[in-house]
Amino acid sequence: MPTFAYIVTETDGRRKEDRIRAANYEAAWEQLTKRGAKIISLREIKISEQARSASIVDQVSMALYRLKTMVPLQTLVFFTRQLSTMFSAGLTIERSIANLMNEEKNPTFKKVLAQVATDLKGGKNLSEALEQHPGVFDNLYVALVGAGEISGSLHVVLEQLAKYLESLADTRRKVISALSYPTFVVIFMIGIMSALLIGVVPKFADIYANFGAELPIQTRLLVATSTLISENLIVFVGLSLLILFLGWILTLTERGGLIWDAFRLRFPVLGPLHRDTMMNRFAKTFGILMGAGVPVLEALTHTQRVVGNRVVEKALTNAKAMIRDGFAISVAMKKTGAFPSTLIQLMATGEETGEMDQLLERASYFYEKQVEAVVERLTGLIQPIMIMMLGLMVVLVVISIYLPIFQIGRAMRAGI
């Protein structure tokens, strides 16, 4: 049975926002009006919107489906820009989608566009057709397109969405650029250490065993580690993959996700980068939705699904409850304690001047620059630190291997 989200004014004048299950839209409307409520908003909640409350199995299935159907962000940016240009030039949505489908080179995305074109011919509007493909078009994309259809400004919304995706792609590229070098060094470090422990250390261990000499403690630890890994390599690799998989499963649970996301915010160096990236995404998304005329509570609901951190999602849930009770947006955000003072001040100014979307755009620009500054610092600091760590680990292994040779040499010279 479908689920519907509603906003009503009760008979005592209170504003209420909740969900209701009914056979269809008309039945849900009748249930609400029978109790004397004045309906402000009523809409069906699609399956993709209920993913958060789904079981672990359903969430894993949805994650795997999105992984299977996802397309590169640059492909989506190009599609949105072209769709905005064609629609603004006077072509219909159906014709624009058909043209873009014929020119598309990515086979996965081409298949998605073919299905979207079929749905449009079948009578669905664009947002409904896009919503069938959550691995390609996320909640924000669908929400903005739906808002543009309702307000009659789809071409404007598509232009804003194209700019937003370009900004997101640029930010993602900068973050990946900052993390790619340390990631490469860590992988290289693991490879070097594995080669030493599996290929080199056992040979020296055999040599030392023939001498029957007492080995230093650091050498004994190194040989024991090497033996453990060499004799149980398959088990070690399998156990590591299992731990990673179970850890990922735990992050899908409510409590596990909160713990993991709280850890991400507090992680040294990378924590501030994650926070600023998230605040940039929040301000950009919320600003676009407000500018498109989406109601505040609905805009916050859509923004919740794109921030990418459950700590902030929970804070937004609390903020929505306070806004329903009559608090100003900036006051509600401040009370949650999850948002920085700079963003709160800009939002308060936006409420006073009636230019919330413009002030949020400034906030997103501010945090975008913060991300750039952090990325530059990371690029400057991480490279020498990682090189030093790699060198230190190799030196420790080499010293542990050759230290017994020095001791045996001294013993032989003393004997002579």
- CATH superfamily (homologous) name of the largest domain: Type II secretion system (T2SS), domain F
Uncertain spans, ≥5 residues at pLDDT below 50? 47-53
Distance between the termini: 92 Å
**Mean pLDDT figure:** 79
SSE string, helix = H, strand = E?
EEHEHHHHHHHHHHHHHHHH
| Strand tally | 3
Q: What's the CATH C level of the largest domain?
A: Mainly Alpha
Number of helices: 17
Biggest sheet architecture:
3 strands, antiparallel
In what order do the strands lie side by side in the largest sheet? 2-1-3
What CATH architecture of the largest domain would you give?
Up-down Bundle
Give the overall shape. Answer: elongated
**Beta-strand residue fraction:** 5-15%
Whole-number radius of gyration?
Answer: 28 Å
Helix coverage percent:
over 70%
CATH fold type of the largest domain: Receptor-associated Protein
**Secondary-structure-derived class:** mainly alpha
Counting structural domains, the number is 3
Description:
The protein is mostly helical and about 425 residues long. The protein folds into 3 domains: about 45 residues, Ubiquitin-like (UB roll) (Roll); about 110 residues, Receptor-associated Protein (Up-down Bundle); about 250 residues, Receptor-associated Protein (Up-down Bundle), CATH 1.20.81. Helices cover about 75% and strands about 5% of the residues. It has 17 helices and 3 strands. Strands 2-1-3 form a 3-stranded antiparallel β-sheet, with helices on one face. Strand 1 and strand 2 form a beta hairpin. The longest helix has about 60 residues. The chain starts with a strand and ends with a helix. About 0% of the residues have low confidence.
